[in-house]
Design a protein that fits this description.
9 strands, ApaG_sf, Immunoglobulin-like, mainly beta, three-stranded antiparallel β-sheet, six-stranded mixed β-sheet
């Protein structure tokens, strides 16, 4: 049975609140020493209650490589957002060079309809 299409829900707004850079660390692989820590807020400005079930990231680097990361949950959670509510979290990407990150969150509304919202692109730039 084919899966039903997902609707981009107007009013589900994603904002990059902050982006920090760190070089290396105790658990950071030497071949990808650049750590980009991002802080994101998802705000439900729609008229529907939504539950976010997962995310997809697409990271395209300056060397022409593309990494796609998909998974269930958002930092281990499935946030339910009533109209006017927001969910904020932080996580990170690691890399070996400058890149652009973009993606989407997916879930369902209170009626069981599949929904998604886009994560606006942002630059992962290594400071000079």
């Amino acid at each position: 049975m084919p899966s039903s299409p997902s609707e981009e829900l107007d009013g589900l707004v994603v904002t990059l609140d902050d982006l920090r850079y760190q070089y290396g660390g105790p658990n950071v692989p030497s071949e990808t020493p650049h750590v980009f820590i991002y802080f994101i807020t998802i705000e439900n400005q729609s008229d529907r209650t939504v539950t976010l079930l997962g995310r997809k990231w697409i990271i395209h680097d300056e060397e022409g490589e593309t990494l796609v990361v998909e998974g269930d949950k958002i930092v281990g959670e499935e946030p339910e957002l009533v109209p006017g509510e927001r969910f904020s979290y932080n996580s990170f990407h690691i890399g070996s060079c400058n890149a652009t990150a973009r993606g989407s969150f997916h879930g369902q509304d209170e009626f069981g309809n599949k929904i998604h919202c886009l994560i606006p692109p942002f630059e992962l730039t290594i400071p000079e």
